[in-house]
Design a protein that fits this description.
With 78 residues, this protein is mainly alpha-helical. It folds into two domains: 37 residues, no CATH class; 40 residues. It is built from four helices and no strands. It is extended. It starts with 6 loop residues before the first helix and ends with a helix.
Length: 78
């Protein structure tokens, strides 16, 4: 695939926000299916370990994906 292809060339700019979110979900699912996990830098690993430790230390201090999605869609007027 030509990496110079952009959203306009693919027609993505004509898609609604909802359609683009669905496309994003499909793309992420396809990466997960192939287990295409990028190498993490040591800084990224340290950040993830710190966040995991914080989540384990404060299990009630979380916001679920459903709530995050509602808030994000509200910000863009959906």
């Amino acid at each position: 695939m030509n990496m110079a292809v952009d959203a306009k060339a693919l027609g993505i700019h004509r898609m609604s926000v909802e359609e683009r979110l669905k496309l994003l979900d499909l793309l992420l699912d396809s990466l997960d299916a192939e287990r295409a996990m990028p190498e993490l830098s040591s800084a990224q690993v340290a950040e993830l370990e710190q966040r995991l430790a914080d989540a384990e230390a404060n299990p009630d201090d979380v916001v679920g994906w459903d709530e995050i999605k509602v808030q994000a869609l509200a910000r863009i007027g959906r």
